[in-house]
Amino acid sequence: xxxxxxxxxxxxxxxxxxxxxxxxxxxxxxxxxxxxxxxxxxxxxxxxxxxxxxxxxxxxxxxxxxxxxxxxxxxxxxxxxxxxxxxxxxxxxxxxxxxxxxxxxxxxxxxxxxxxxxxxxxxxxxxxxxxxxxxxxxxxxxxxxxxxxxxxxxxxxxxxxxxxxxxxxxxxxxxxxxxxxxxxxxxxxxxxxxxxxxxxxxxxxxxxxxxxxxxxxxxxxxxxxx
Length: 226
Prior knowledge:
Elements lengths: L18 E5 L6 H8 L1 H10 L5 E7 L4 H14 L6 E5 L2 E8 L2 E8 L4 E6 L3 H8 L4 E4 L11 H12 L5 E2 L8 E4 L8 E8 L4 E8 L2 E8 L3 E3 L2
Parallel strand pairs: 1-5, 4-8
Antiparallel strand pairs: 2-6, 2-7, 3-6, 4-5, 9-10, 9-13, 10-11, 11-12
Helix pairs in contact: 2-5
Family: Belongs to the NusG family.
Keywords: Transcription, Transcription antitermination, Transcription regulation, Transcription termination
GO cellular component, one term: cytosol
């Protein structure tokens, strides 16, 4: 999934901003930072890893990625299963907004509603993780966890390794017309019906072949038509 680079939108004149306030996402901890700062070793380990360790995507409630990550780590510890888990990754980006000449920087998830784990998964561990609060399910076919492809996990880890430049916080208004720039509905325009700022997801009404079709999409997959 491609993302639009908004680096050019970042104000360059520091005199316009009195101060910068940095805010970390809820549940962020030292171990989380260590995993993402050591992403080179995670990538190398992924290439050389025993095939029993696979990468999976776990769907969570939007905004709960960090708390779910911590809950999985605690679950692994409580079940003496540290040898079954190699990594948990929640890719993040820096988003800022300016209010009263103060720039507030916040870390948000690049993949709202998803946590990625490299794990030696069996049925028991699968069900234990899936029963955790705020966890939806493992992504997979026939309701069973399906490992991510090498190409998919490479894309995800590359984004962790090469964090995008801070981008401005974007908001959308109901009734606003936007153009879809990525995904199966690319180049279609849609009318905003709802925008969830926490999950960064838009609900659009898109006219496809003369029929109004509801579409849910990430805000990085659209741009304003002005």
